Design the sequence.
């Protein structure tokens, strides 16, 4: 009897009849439609998230991050930004700075321990052209002398690094790209105008990155 039942279930007409009786076919159709709808919604959400990330990055294009600039309790962050620009051979006035501030809460040193490293300084320039001028002059910072009267001292800028103000998403992509560079799988990885770029070799074409998946071809 068991063999007979199994043989009946293998019959396409009987299987179709049973599916109709129990509404299986209709349920499968509903499930398929729901899966297609969910997949379409995921595509829309991904596209919207990418667009929001692009807008956020665009809003940061006038900013630069400075790491390693010595920090003082009553410092004037805007004046610091002007002094740093002068060391990069860029003349700025206060009206050229939208805002400047340290990132994060002040850090207190524990008794008997070395003072904590200075917090990063973020500067937002009114003009993208001014921001670019400082960006391209950043290599001068390590050898330039601070302006007279500046809180900066000679030699303090040797450990200062200047970076573009990338979003968290782009920071993660760039971190992964630089890891690949350390592994010898990329010749270069950098950002230019907050656009992420890599090259597999010195002679290869430049590849723009918009997601971590774009790096899979180099892994």
Sequence:
């Amino acid at each position: 009897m068991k063999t007979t039942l199994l043989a009946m279930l293998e019959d396409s007409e009987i299987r179709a009849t049973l599916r109709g009786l129990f509404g299986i076919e209709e349920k499968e159709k509903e499930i398929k439609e729901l899966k297609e709808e969910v997949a379409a919604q995921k595509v829309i959400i991904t596209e919207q998230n990418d667009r929001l990330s692009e807008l956020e990055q665009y809003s940061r294009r006038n900013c630069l991050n400075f790491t390693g600039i010595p920090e003082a309790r009553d410092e004037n962050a805007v004046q610091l930004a002007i002094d740093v620009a002068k060391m990069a051979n860029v003349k700025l006035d206060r009206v050229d700075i939208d805002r400047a501030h340290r990132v994060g809460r002040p850090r207190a040193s524990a008794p008997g321990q070395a003072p904590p490293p200075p917090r990063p300084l973020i500067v937002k320039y009114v003009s993208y052209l001014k921001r670019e001028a400082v960006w391209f002059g950043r290599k001068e910072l390590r050898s330039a002398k601070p302006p007279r009267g500046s809180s900066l001292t000679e030699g303090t800028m040797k450990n200062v690094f200047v970076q573009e103000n990338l979003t968290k998403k782009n920071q993660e992509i760039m971190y992964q790209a630089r890891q690949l560079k350390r592994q010898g799988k990329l010749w270069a990885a950098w950002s230019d105008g907050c656009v992420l770029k890599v090259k597999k070799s010195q002679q290869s074409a430049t590849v723009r990155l918009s997601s971590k998946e774009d790096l899979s071809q180099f892994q």
In short: The two ends are 58 Å apart (CA to CA).
